[in-house]
Amino acid sequence: MITLYGFGIGFGLPEISPFVTKTEVQLKMAGLPYRKERAMPPASPKGQLPFIDDDGEAVADSTFIRAHIERRYGFDFDAGLSLQERAQAWAFERMIESHVYWALVGARWVDPVNFAKGPAHFFDGAPEHNREKLREDAQFRVAENYLLSGLGRHAPDDDVDLAVRSLFALSVQLGDKAYLMGNKPCGVDATAFGALGGILTPFFESRLRERAEEFPNLRAYVDRMMDQYYPEFAWTKLREAA
């Protein structure tokens, strides 16, 4: 039995982290039984979530977990794709994780209102005397990484404009297909769903979310993926309520 370590439900999502979501969806795609445990990044071999324990073998980082699943269980997440399509899927995955993800970070962690509503609560269980210091330090570190990513060097509207160019690319690639690479989900769909769901969650208000909602096919895609992989989660009702 594989144990997946993640943050768990929160922020109007079945899993807070887009990277944990990616791995969880890929475990579902592969049809592998697993159980899920809550953890914090320091527990991971690489200081980040997700990581898995597979019969005593710890594997950290969502991309390396995918490679482990493919190698150990012989599951091909991109079965049916040509060599060129596999290359395109990898390029879109890198765009999502190296660009779109950081726009999500800016909206969730750097925006003071959203930080107070969401990530700040990660530290609610810390001793009261240093709780605020831990929150300030964490937000500062994330904001510093956001700056280093490149997006954080731009004015707020400019960084969103850049992120929307990537969302536009995803929207064009998706077109009227059910999934990014065709009518069957593949590995990159888990990545895209994790990031897009994190942007479109009704829990946070942001300019990024407003712009993302301008792409009807991306919204329908996230709804479709949510219904397929988290049918027990009332995503559509949450969005309608918002």
TrEMBL record:
Alphabetized SUPFAM superfamilies for the sequence: GST C-terminal domain-like, Thioredoxin-like
Sequence ranges assigned to domain Metaxin glutathione S-transferase in this UniProt record: 165-225
Superkingdom of origin organism: Bacteria
Residue ranges occupied by any Thioredoxin-like fold domain in the UniProt entry: 18-114
Family annotation (InterPro entries): FAX/IsoI-like (IPR026928), Glutathione-S-Trfase_C_sf (IPR036282), Glutathione_S-Trfase (IPR040079), Metaxin_GST (IPR033468), Mito_Protein_Transport_Metaxin (IPR050931), Thioredoxin-like_fold (IPR012336), Thioredoxin-like_sf (IPR036249)
PANTHER family per record: FAILED AXON CONNECTIONS-RELATED (PTHR12289:SF41), METAXIN RELATED (PTHR12289)
Name the record gives this protein: Glutathione S-transferase
Species for this entry: Bradyrhizobium iriomotense
Biological classification of the source: Bacteria, Pseudomonadati, Pseudomonadota, Alphaproteobacteria, Hyphomicrobiales
